[in-house]
Amino acid sequence: MFILRIFSAFLSLYSLLCLLRIIITWIPNYSYSKPADILAQICDPYMNLFRGIKWLRFGSFDFSPALALCILGAGSQLFSSLANGGYINLQMILAMILGIFFSILSSLIFFLIILFAIRLILIMINRDSYNTSGFMANQIDSSISSIVYRIARTFAIGRRITYKAALIISIIALLFLQFALRILLAFILSIIL
């Protein structure tokens, strides 16, 4: 039991280091510092195992670190459960796999909702045109416009819609999808467990 607790603690600590590594890559001034290099040497070999997964890439966004962190979290939870006198069965493994899958999907949806909402706010602040909001808006648009229109076309069958309307439709659709996924996960877990 002691060894299982050590494994659980190690995976939790490693998850924290990987999370710090991810956050540091977002800060240009710190991503090339000595602490960032040390974290890269520790975390990148594991994180690189997930970088080639195509379905975790949307435009310029890479969600492979989310999968890497979810697997570390599941491993830590598994060892902790075993250390506390639990046992492993097929239902527990299936529940963990479903939990990881739904967690990644939910994180992706939440991220897109936030990104779409930021873009919608920028449009509402600058009412003249969605293109004149500056560099940040153009960067967001280049990453999300194809996804926004793909979602919006599903509901605006045959009608032309503005980018603002497409954003609103997409946000509502993703919020509904997020809610539906939570209900579906709860239902599936109640059947499995």
Automatic annotation (TrEMBL):
<dbReference type="GO" id="GO:0016020">
    <property type="term" value="C:membrane"/>
</dbReference>
<keyword id="KW-0812">Transmembrane</keyword>
<feature type="transmembrane region" description="Helical">
    <location>
        <begin position="6"/>
        <end position="24"/>
    </location>
</feature>
<feature type="transmembrane region" description="Helical">
    <location>
        <begin position="92"/>
        <end position="118"/>
    </location>
</feature>
<comment type="similarity">
    <text>Belongs to the YggT family.</text>
</comment>
<keyword id="KW-0472">Membrane</keyword>
<dbReference type="InterPro" id="IPR003425">
    <property type="entry name" value="CCB3/YggT"/>
</dbReference>
<feature type="transmembrane region" description="Helical">
    <location>
        <begin position="165"/>
        <end position="192"/>
    </location>
</feature>
<dbReference type="Pfam" id="PF02325">
    <property type="entry name" value="CCB3_YggT"/>
</dbReference>
<keyword id="KW-1133">Transmembrane helix</keyword>
<protein>
    <recommendedName>
        <fullName>YggT family protein</fullName>
    </recommendedName>
</protein>
